[in-house]
Write a structure and sequence with these properties.
Radius of gyration: 16 Å
Order of helices and strands: HHHHH
Largest sheet: none
Shape: flat
Strand content: under 5%
Oligomer: single chain
Number of domains: 1
């Protein structure tokens, strides 16, 4: 999710997709949503390889972890900006 949303190497394809497909623009704004759909794809691939039933929970765990770490990194960046301004 992090590479899809913030990776500089994907700037051109991401901007092309978000300009031409409005629903993808909304998807790339939300780390929870992008994490869920990334988890769906990875969970489906893992299910096809291993044929285990617990991969159905993978999208939920993926979306929760992506949202948590995206929020945590935003908070760290905000605190670093606050500390830089106070110097």
């Amino acid at each position: 999710m992090w590479i899809l949303r913030y990776g500089s190497i994907l700037n051109k394809p991401r901007s092309f997709l978000t300009k031409n497909i409005p629903i993808l623009a909304e998807l790339f704004k939300c780390s929870l949503c992008l994490g869920f759909w990334s988890g769906v794809i990875i969970g489906f691939i893992c299910f096809k390889i291993n044929n285990q039933q617990y991969y159905i929970l993978f999208p939920l765990a993926s979306s929760a972890l992506c949202w948590f770490f995206d929020s945590l990194l935003d908070l760290i960046q905000l605190s670093c900006n606050f500390l830089d301004k106070s110097d």
